[in-house]
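Hello again, I could really use a second opinion on something today. My current little project is about how a certain protein chain folds up. You're getting the sequence in one-letter code plus the fold written as tokens. Here's the protein in full, and shout if anything looks odd to you:
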Amino acid sequence: MSSRNSKQRTLASRLTIWNAAIYIVFFGSAFLLFYLSIGNILHNLLDEDMVEDITDFRMLLEEDGFSGVTTEIEREIYADGPENSFFRVMDEDGNTVFSSDLSAWDEAVVDTVLLEQFAEDSEPVLVTIAAPDRDYDARVVYGWIGPDMIMQTGESMEEIQELLTLLSTIFAFTFAVVVVFASITGWLLARRALRGVEEVSRVAVDVANGTLDRRMLAKTEGAEIERLASTFNTMLDRIDTLMSGMREMTDNVAHDMRSPLARIRANSEMVLSDTTTIDEFRASAADTIEECDRLMHMINTTLDVAEAEAGAARLSMESIDLSRVAEDACELFGPIAEDKGISLSSSIEPGCHVRGNLQMLQRMLANLLDNALKYSERNSRVTVGVNARDNTVLVSVRDEGTGISQQDLKKIFDRYFRCDESRSKSGCGLGLSLVRAVTMAHGGSIDVVSAAGTGSEFRITLPA
């Protein structure tokens, strides 16, 4: 039962039903219009023919007299048959003067009410009569053919109704053929149109089962399907890139966490030895706390980056003098630069305000300065700049350090990514990730200009 319901709910089945329904409505409407038009035309032709008979008998009465009328009536009855037509000639009171054989026309009574209203200058009047024992209706006309002489003539509508019945039979047969044809063609067209969608479904199933290298083939199935295939392949490429990034990030996390955990374990093993003194206990505890702090810093920074990138961080925004924040950062890192023999200079335009979170902006500048000093050599220069430009504030941190290769330049903002040169330095590869996340959370953008051996310049643009 569920399988049958599933088939009924498929898009191909619904398209087939819609296609057949459109054919049915269109063909049915066309036949109904044709049927009504043909019926109306045939009835009008019959009425015109009967009115013309009245005119002919009027002219015949004038030319040949009453004997000519009776002769013509007998000829007409002989040609049509008494069961298919009849003639009656009456005076103005409705008394029969002459008639054809009326044995098959019991229902053909004289309408006295009509005769009472029937003046000599009246146009012929047509009525339709029916009888319980007759299969077909009859059309009857009343008309003046001479002074004090009215003719009533009737004709069976058998031929008209048989023709319409034949048309209905032909339509019923044709309608059945059309429905079958519409269903088959609709199904074939729907299957062909949805072939690309089914291919997407098969590829999606393979990907869900772990075959991440599956891709849609470029086919000429139509612009929509090609666009769907292209979008789907782009999504799969993005997923593959994310998976590769996750694997790389996992490797980096494992590498960066292994060293602190190994030191914690080594300290613990040393403490468990019998020769450990109180001073060694204290030194081991201090080392363990330091390594735990390093791990906690890595975890907390990871959470901060994730929250900022997802927009889930609840930041209290206020007007911040970014010029003052940059000056404080330079003052804070001045002694560190001096100890390393690095010249820390600034070009800060006063009064550059942005709307943001003070703590996050401080961390953003601190991370940039920390990176710049960490990878700069002695006797080099680090420059911090803050300038207002149109409706934005530009923050720049430039160093003359080791620089970044073009290969690594695209990855430096990824979490836990560290260049080969930075493996020997302390850190966990989250500083620049946090810088970008904070920048994006404040509606800004960040870019970097760097090359191996020539230093780097990070530029952050924030709305003023």
Summary: DSSP finds eleven helices and twelve strands in the chain. The longest strand covers residues 138-146.
